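Supplementary Methods, section 5.1.

A reviewer requested that the exact input to the structure prediction be made available. We therefore reproduce it here, unchanged from the version used in the analyses.
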Amino acid sequence: MKEKQQTLLSRGHIFACTNKTERECFDRMLFSTNKVYSEKALGVKKGDILFLYNLDNDTLYGVFQAKSDGGKDIIPEAWNGKYPYQVEAEKIGEITSAKKIRKALSKFGISWKNGLDEERTKLLLEYLKNPSEFDLSVAPSLKIEENKPPLEATTLWNYPRQSYGKLSKGNNKYPGVTPAFIIYNLIRRYTEPGDLVVDPMAGSGTTLDVCKEEGRDCIAYDIAPTREDIIQNNARKIPLSDNNVDMIFIDSPYGDNIKYNDHPDNIGKISAETENFYDELEKVMKECHRILKPGKVLGWLIGDQWVKKKFTPVGFNIYQRLSKYFETVDVISVVRRNQTSNTGIWHNRAIRFNFYLRGFKYLFVMRKPSFDSEQSSKRVVNWTQYPRRKGNKSKKGTTNEI
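The structure derived from this sequence is encoded cell-by-cell as follows.
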C-alpha cells in the first residue's frame, strides 16, 4: 500500500480556472482545459495528485486526486463544451487554499502549464498544509522546466534555431529547411492527438518528425524524397480522398532561388517573376482544398524576392491565389535568421547600395470553409470601448498618459 501511495505522489497536475469557471469545477468535481493544453489532461492517470489554480485571483486549491484517467468530453455539456479535455476529481481530505500563490510557484519552479515531478509535487503538498507558516526562504529554488516550446501569442514569430528538444527535427543543412517551431505551433493549435497532418512538399521531413513527437499521424510527400518515410509524389496531384485531412502544412519554393533537386517537374525551377510559377502552385492549392476537411486549417510558409534591383511580392501573390479557396485565419510574420545573406557583408551592401534584405517570411493560416460559413459570416460584433489609461501624477502635479 505504501508503494502505491508513493507512486501516486510522484505525479502531480495543476488545472487552471477563472472566476467564471471555478464554481463549475467544484460543483461537478471536474477539471478541464482546451485543445491547446489537451496533452496535459490526456496525460492524467487515475490516482494522480491534482490541484486547481484560479488565474484571476491567484489562488491554489488542493488537494485532489484523479478519479478517472484524463479524457475528452467526459461531461460534454460542461462549460458549454468550451473545455472538452477533462478529468474527474475527488477531494483528499478537506480542501485548503493558498492565496497569492504566484511567488511560491515561481520559487518551486512550477508552471501550471506543465506536469509536476515528484519533488515539485511534494513541495506543493507541504506548502498547502500551512501556507502562512511556510518559510519560502529556506525552500529549494528550482527552475521551471519547459518540456515543450512555448506557444506563440502574437503574429510575430522569431526562432533562434531550426529545431527544439532532444531529438532533431528535419535536417538543418537542407536548403530552405523549415523551423520546427512553426509546425509545432500550428499542430498544437489546430489539431488533436491522432489527427492526420499532410505535408505535400516535405523537404527534409521536419513535419514528420514534429508530428511523431506530438502524437499526430503524418503523410509526407516530396517530388524528390530525401528519406525513406517520405513518399515520392508531385504535389499537383495528391493521392488522397476528398475531405480526409485534418491539417496541411506547406513550405513551398519561393521561386528559382534555391536548387532543391534535379527533378524536371520541380516548381522550384520556375521563376517567381512569371505567372507560370503561381499557376503551378495554384494547382497545389486546389489539391489541398480538395483533401482538407471542411473547417480545417492549411499553413503556407512563403517569402518575397528581391534580385537584381527588382522586388517581387511573392507572398502577396500567393495569398491572392489562396484566398480563392480558403478563408483567412491569420497572417504571421516569421523572422528570417539563417539565410545566406544574413551576414555582415550583406548588411553592409544593403546600406551602401540602398536596398533591403528579406527580414521575414509570411505564414498564411487559412481555413477551408465549413458548411455553415455563410451563416457565421453574418455576425454582429459589439465592441467594448475602453477609456484611455492615465498614469499617476508626479510629485509636481503633472500627469503622464500612456
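Residues 156-376 form a domain with the Rossmann fold fold (CATH 3.40.50.150). These observations are discussed further in the main text.
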